[in-house]
Amino acid sequence: MRVDPYYVSNLSGALDQTQLSLQNLTSELSSGVSVNSLSDNPVSAGQNVVLLNQIQQDDSFTQSSNLVTGQLNVADSALGSVVTQLTQAISLATSANNGTMNASDVQSIGNQISGILGEVMSLANTSYQGQYIFAGTQNSTVPFSTSNSNPSQTTYAGDQGVNYLDAPNGQKIQLNVPGSQVFMGSGTKSVFGALNALVADYSSGTVNTTQAVADTAALNTALNYVSQQRVTIDNSINQVTAAADAVTNVGTELTSAQSNLMQADFSQVSTSLSLSETQQTALEDVIAQLGSTSNSLFSKLQG
Amino acid sequence: MGTISNAFSTISGALDADQSALNIIANNVANANTVGYTRENATFQENDPLTINGVSYGQGASQAGPTSVRDRVLSERIDQQQQLASASGTRVASLNTVQALFTPDSGSSSSGAGDIGADITSFFNSFSKLEATPTDNSLRQNVLSTATSLAGDISNAASSLNAQRANLDQEASGVTSQVNSLTASIAQLNQQITTTSPNGDAGTLEDQRQADLSQLSNLVGINQITTENNGLSITTTSGAELVSGSTSYQMTSGSVSGVTHFYVGTEDVTSGLTSGGGELGGYLTARDVDIPNVMNSLDQLAYSVSTQVNSLNNAGTDLNGNSGTVVTNGVSTDTNSHDIFAEPAANKVAGSALNMAVVMTDPDMIATAAFGAGTGDNSNAVALANLGSSQIVTNPTTGTSETPTNFYSSFVSALGSTITEAQTENTAQTASVTQLQTQSDSLSGVNLDDEASDMTTMERSYQAASQVFTMINSLMASTINLGETTTVT
Predict the structure, then answer these.
(1) Which residues of B touch A46 (CB under 8 A)?
(2) Most CB atoms within 10 A, among A19, B30, B258, B303?
(3) Mean pLDDT across the stretch A118-147?
C-alpha cells in the first residue's frame, strides 16, 4: 500500500500545534488567568460576570454601611445627650416642685430648664454632613424652631419620612427616626411640649404645684419615649454591623470562587507545559531523522 | 533476414518505450513539489504480432503515454470538506475579533475597564450608595460617571461591531473577482479537455482544472456535475449555475441598503451562499447571522436599561424638589425631562446600543426621592438600585426576562459557546480534510523512492535493450559479411 509521500511535511503541522499549545500555556502561567477569552471557557466566563457582580455589590454595601453607621452613631449620641439633659431637667423640676424654694430660686430653675430646652433644641437640629438627621426626608431645612409666645411653641418643619437601606440579605434597615416622632410625640410624649410647659410654670416664680408636677411627669414620660426611639437607632446600628460582617464573609467566599473559576491552576499548567515540551522535542527529532536526505533511495542509488 | 530486421525494429521500439518511460519518471520527479500535480504512470503496451512464413513474431512494446493516477470521487470529497472547513475557519476568525470586544474581567481592578458586566454593576451600585446619603453630591456625580462608562462601553462595542461587519462585507465582496477568474479558467479548461481528450483522462489539463476547483472550494460552496466529453458543470450549493461546459457565468455584487448582495445573472444568491460554505459562506454567516445576534443582545440590554432607568428617574423627585412626572387631573404623564440616558424611540430596540448615551448633565436631577416626598427621601434610589436585580431585560433567544447582569452573563456564555462550537466544528472539518488529503496524496502524490526504484528498473531495461541491440547489430554484420569480418563491423 502506498503511503502519503508528504508525511514528513505533515509532521510540521503537528509541530505548529504543539507550539501553539506551548504559547497558550506560557501565557496562562505568566498572566495567572486561565480564561483569556470567552471561548476558552464560556460557562466560566458567564458565571464570572455574575460572581463579580455579587462581589462588587457587596463591596458597595460595605461602603454604604460605613456611611450609614456614621450617621446612625451621630443620631445615637445626640439622643444620648438628650436623655442626659432631660434627666437633669427632671431632677431640677422635682427640686422646684417640693415647695421649699423661694421665687428667685424657682425662676433660676426655670432659666436652667429654658437653657436645657435650648440645648435639646440644638440636639434635635443636629446635622450630619449638612443634612438634618431628625427632619424626616426634608433634611435640608432646619426641622425645629420655637416661637416667642408664652408658653413658647415649638414647630416641626420636617416630615414623617423614613429611609431604609436594602441590605444584600434582603433586610430593610431603618436609617432615621423622624424628629416629630422623637421630640413631639402626641400628648404627654412630647419633649418640647413638656419642657415649654415647665419653663412657663417656673417663669413667674410662684409654682402651681399640681400643674408643675403633672408637667414633670409628662417630661418623664417623654424621656422614656426618647429612650425607646433611641433603641430603634441602636438596633439599626447592630443590623448594619451584622449585615456588613455577613457581606464580608460572603465576599471572601465569592472571591475565592471567582479565583477558582478564572485563575490558572499552576501545577496543572506546569505539568501540561512540560508534556508539550517533551512532545515538541520528540517531534523535532522525528522530523530531523525522517527528513534527512540520507533516507532517500536516490541517495542510496548514487553510492 | 526478415526476422533479424524485425528484431531490430522490436528492440529499437523498446528503447523508445523505455526512454519515454524515463521521461515520465523525470516529469514526476520534476513535479514532486508542484501543487495539484497528479503522478503519472508509464503504460507499456504490447504491439500487434507479425506473421512471417506462418509464424507469429511479437513486435515488442510501445508506450501508450502517461496515465494520471487520479481518484475523482476522492478529489470531490476533499473539495466538499474544504468548503465546510474554510467556511467555519473564516467564521471562527471573524468571531475571534468579535469576542475580543468582550474579554472576561479577571476581577483585578485594572481588568474591569471597558467591561460591560462591570459597568452594569457599578452603575446600579451607584444608586445603592445613594440609598445611604441620597443628597450627597459626589455620590450623585458618581451615578452620572458610571452611567457614562456604561453607555460609552455599550455604544463603543456596537460601533466596533458595525465596523467589523463593514470589514466582512468588504472582504466578502472581494471574493467575487477571484471566483470569476477561477470559473472563467475552469470553463476554458473544460473546452480544451473536451476537445483534446473527450474520452480519457486529460492529464495536466485535468490537474489544472482540479487545482482551480480546490481554490474555488476555498472560496464558495459549489456542486460539481460531470457532463459528456469529460466536461464539468459547476453550480453554487444553492443551484445557481457558475460554469456550464465552456461558458462561465459571472458572479456580481451590489449594495442593497448598505449591505453587499451577490448575484449570478439577475438572481440574488446571497442567502444560498451564506449557508453554502467556503470563505464567502463564512464571511456572510458572520456578517448576517453572528454579528447581528450579538448586536441584537446589546440593543436589547441598552434599550431595557435606558428606558427603565429613565422611566423610574422621571417618576421620582430630584434634589431640587422637581419631578419628570406631571399630574394633570389625576393623570400622570412622563415628560422625559429627567432622562438619564437618551430615550430610545418607543419599541425601537434596533440601534439602541449604538445610540446609548448619557443626556443628563446636572447630578441634582437624579430623582432619589419618591414622587412628592422630601428631597432627603431615598425610596426612589432604592427602586433604581433594585432595577439592577430586577428582571428587566428580555432575552431575544429564550423570550424570558432576566436581570441586566444575568442577561449579560448568558450573553457572554452564549457567544463563547458559539465560538467554541465553531472552533470544534472547524477542527473536525480540518482534520477530515487532512485525512482525505493524505488519502489522496498516498494515491496521487509523487513518492521519490518509488520514482528512484522505477528509474532503476527503466535504466536496467534500457541497458538490456541496448545490449540486445548491440548483439543483434553484430549478428547483422556477421550476416552481411558472411564470415568476412573486414567489410562491415
Answers:
(1) 409-410, 412-413, 416
(2) B303
(3) 89
Name the 3-class secondary structure at A80: helix
What is the arithmetic mean of pLDDT over A131-147?
88
Per-residue pLDDT averaged across B300-307, rounded?
A: 94
Confidence grade of residue A302 (pLDDT, cut at 50, 70, 90): low
How many of the other CB atoms lie within 10 Å of CB of B166? Answer: 14
Helix axes B116-132, B291-315, angle to 10 degrees: 10
In eight-state DSSP terms, residue A151 is: S
pLDDT at B112: 53
**What CA–CA distance (Å, rounded) separates A125 from B132?**
19
Residue ranges per domain, chain A? 49-258
Q: What is the mean pLDDT of residues A182-206?
A: 84
**Three cell numbers, residue A140:** 435640608
Assign domain A49-258 to its CATH architecture. Answer: Up-down Bundle (1.20)
Q: Which of A200-209, A268-277, B156-165 has the lowest mean pLDDT?
A: A200-209
User: Would the pLDDT of B24 be above 90?
Assistant: yes
Q: Is the pLDDT of residue A30 over 90?
A: no
> Residue B108's closest CA among A15, A271, A112, A262?
A262
At position B363, the amino acid (one-letter code) is: P
pTM over 0.90: no
Is the CB of A5 less than 8 angstroms away from the CB of B132?
Answer: no
CB contact under 8 A, B438 and A4: yes
Residue B488 CA to chain centroid, in angstroms? 75
Between chains, do B376 and A129 touch, taking CB under 8 Å as contact? no
Taking CA atoms, what residue in A is nearest to B97?
Answer: A37
Asked whether the beta carbons of residue A255 and residue B413 sit closer than 8 angstroms, the reply is no
What is the spatial distance between Cα B477 and Cα A75, in angstroms, rounded to a whole number? 137
Mean pLDDT of all residues in A126-130:
89
pLDDT digits (tens, 9 = 90+) for B172-201: 989 999 999 999 999 999 999 999 888 878
- Per-residue model confidence as pLDDT tens digits over B356-367: 999 999 999 999
ipTM of the complex: 0.85
Cell numbers standing for residue B198: 473527450
B408 contact partners, CB below 8 Å, separation of at least 6: A49, B116, B117, B120, B301
Q: Where are the domains of chain B?
A: 2-69+466-481, 77-430
**Residue ranges of E strands in chain A:** 127-128, 131-132, 144-146, 154-156, 164-166, 172-174
Q: Which single residue is written with the C-alpha cell 448582495? A: B261
Give the whole-angstrom CA distance, residue A168 versus residue B65: 86
CA pseudo-torsion sign B375, B376, B382, B388 = positive
Compute the residue count for chain A.
Answer: 303
Q: What is the mean pLDDT of residues B236-263?
A: 90
pLDDT tens digits, one per residue of A164-174: 998 887 889 99
Contact B221, B87 (CB under 8 A): yes
Contacts of A67 in chain B (CB under 8 A): 129, 132-133
Residue B321: count of CB within 10 angstroms of its CB = 13
| Helix, strand, coil share (%) of chain A residues, nearest 5 | 70, 5, 20
